[in-house]
Amino acid sequence: MKNIIILILLNIFYILSYSQENRINVEDVYCNVDTFNMMILINQNVEEINDTIPIRKIQVLDDDYFFSFPETELETGVSYDVFNIQNEEYKLYFTQLPIVNLHTNNTIVDEPRVSAHFSLCETNENYIESDIGIEIRGGSSKSHPKKSFRIEFLDDTINKKTVDVSLLGMRSDDDWNLQAMYNEPLRLRSKVNFALWDKIDNLYYMRQEPSANNGIEQEYIELFLNDEYQGIYTLSERIDRKQLQLKKNKGSYLRGELYKGVSWGASTYTSIPNFNNTNELWSGFKYEYPSDTTIWDNLYEYIDFVINDDSLSFYPKYTEKLCLENAVNYFIFLNTLRATDNTGKNLYLARYNTNEPYFFVPWDLDGTFGTIWNGSKVNITNDILTNGLYNRLLLDTKSDGFKYSLNRRWKELRENTITVDSILSMFNSEFDYLTKNGAYKRELEVWKECTFIDMNNLDYTKSWLEDRLNFLDKEWGDSSTFTGIGNIQVATESPIVFPNPTSNYLKFQSSRKVIKISIFNNIGVIQKNTYPEDSSGTIEIHNLNSGLYIAVFKLDSGESKVTRFIINE
Q1: What is the pLDDT of residues 57-86, one digit of tens each?
Q2: Which residue in 56, 121, 171, 425 has its CB near the most CB atoms, within 10 A?
Q3: What tens digit of pLDDT does each residue of 192-246 get?
Q4: Whose CA is closest to 520, among 488, 555, 482?
């Protein structure tokens, strides 16, 4: 008890002794005080306030806070113990990150948006404030204690009139996301992944629309909600018509189209139920644009083509309906990251204009590089992520088709872009930035129960990435091993099959020796291989279901020929 009284008396003496000297005055706009977590965060440049030496106290929002010991120089990211006149101890930090403050008297819910006030301050004195509408966003992330938000800037709070705002050098828009990244180790994956996608893919119509972006920009901020510190977030653009610069529509005549994959079904090219144009959801897709009408007809026709057209129709035509370059880039991206939650959901499908090809835009890239959607580590590196569309594309081995395009693009990207050093440098750059500013210290302070913050995760990521790229090199690096049905010619006189239709067996006859016969179903999935080494013979097919099939004959001349036949029950 005696020691406590002495300490209090010494503090009072210290305060009275230096109450009028060696004080730093910080502009209010930079100051943030969290009385719950006993934290003060300031993002004024420390170089501007280090003129006073020694530094004994600091004025924050009209209150004085005293350093336990005089400081000769303040540094970004360092934790300082300070106490106020009531002898309450706070942790004081300086950061270079922009700071966002949200204030609201309302409970923030999933829907609808509620009124709030937004302010953002940067170290370079840029400051913006506005009324906003705010709601919780995300799927499974809604269950996390640290919430992600969607915000909309308002010019008129009564009529809810929106206003476009440019934030942190990103696009000017009224609609933004605040990403919590609660289940991301070190809060790095989403930001790094979108930066990597930007290096891999460009929109094919960039010359017509130079401001279009096939992804999003996002910047780190630190967030306060009603004066309580929430931690590291990214302020993020959204995928929408404006971001992609899709052609605006005219009435019921569709030009630009945008759909979001929210679950599995047609979005993974595995089913095609009937649609209803009065619903904004259909078989794994959510209708995004045009916003004033719902017309599923075009998308249904495209999915039906992928699932149901036979191979002789599909392979010559699919590049008219799907952007081949983008499809290759996304397949590489998906598998480099091993983004297990992004084969159909967490993915946008877009169309720039009428009769243009569809293309992919990634979204929600948190479960990657050896982790899955819930933040858990899954150290699997030796598999290929695919869906019904890619299952068909991987059988296209024409010289200008998917498989060879995949091989060529993989080799290009492996030179500089998709390398261990290049990708890890992106991780390290963001990690160093957050570490230098002490952001991880504060994140751990307010989210003590979070098990996903692993300061050794970069070592795990490096090891995982090395194994993953080695596996993909073996899968995609050698085009001499490619096999498929996308490079075959339709048989005319030879070989022939009979009877057709058939049920239990199929006879063939050829003018040349047949080395191998491969039987595919109508969507290109192989059902049977046989090696007759003869110019005629019989194939047993009693175990195959009824339907349309394709027989691919490899001849002793090296040619491959194809013919169709039907199995009846």
Answers
A1: 999 998 999 998 888 889 999 999 999 999
A2: 121
A3: 999 999 999 999 999 999 999 999 999 999 999 999 999 999 999 999 999 999 9
A4: 488
Q: How far apart are CA 29 and CA 41, in angstroms?
A: 11
Task: Give residue 486's pLDDT.
Answer: 67
458 CA to centre of own chain: 19
Other residues' Cβ atoms within 10 Å of the Cβ of residue 368: 24
9 vs 367 pLDDT, higher one:
367
Positions of E strands within 124-203: 127-137, 148-156, 161-162, 165-166, 172-173, 175-179
Q: What is the CATH number of domain 489-567?
A: 2.60.40.2470
- Compute the chain's Rg from CA coordinates: 30
The four Cα atoms 524, 528, 534, 538 give a dihedral, to 10 degrees, of -110
The token pair that represents 301 in the structure block: 């026709």
Residues of the chain with CATH 1.10.1070: 253-481
What residues contact residue 97 under an 8 Å CB cut-off, 6+ apart? 43, 220, 221, 222, 232, 437, 439
Tokens 């479960």 identify what position?
367
Task: Tell me the C-alpha distance between 61 and 28, whole Å.
Answer: 6
Q: What mean pLDDT comes out for the span 26-37?
A: 94
Dump pLDDT digits (tens) for 491-516: 444 688 888 888 888 888 888 899 99
The whole-angstrom separation of Cα 411 and Cα 418 is: 9
394: left (phi over 0), alpha (psi -120 to 50) or beta: alpha
The mean predicted confidence, pLDDT, of the chain is: 90
**Angle, helices 324-337/457-476, rounded to nearest 10 degrees:** 130
Residue 491 pLDDT: 47
Single out the residue of 232, 225, 255, 243 nearest to residue 176, CA to CA. 243
543 contact partners, CB below 8 Å, separation of at least 6: none
Angle at 349 between CA 347 and CA 351, to 5 degrees: 155
The partner residues of 261 in beta bridges, in order of sequence, read 285, 347
Chain region(s) in the chain for CATH 2.60.40.2470: 489-567
Q: How far apart are the two ends of the chain, measured CA to CA in Å?
A: 94
Extract the runs of DSSP E, i.e. beta strands, from 294-426: 347-351, 358-362
In this prediction, residue 18 carries a pLDDT of 45
CA distances in angstroms from 103 to 137, 228, 562, listed in the order given:
18, 10, 68
The structure tokens listed for 10 are 């010494």
Give yes or no for residue 139 having a pLDDT over 90: no
Task: Give me the pLDDT at residue 454, please.
Answer: 82
Q: How far apart are CA 170 and CA 173, in angstroms?
A: 9
Q: Which of 55, 41, 32, 26 is nearest to 437 (CA)?
A: 41
Q: What's the one-letter identity of residue 399?
A: S
Looking at residue 498, its pLDDT comes to 80
* Residues 253-481, CATH architecture: Orthogonal Bundle (1.10)
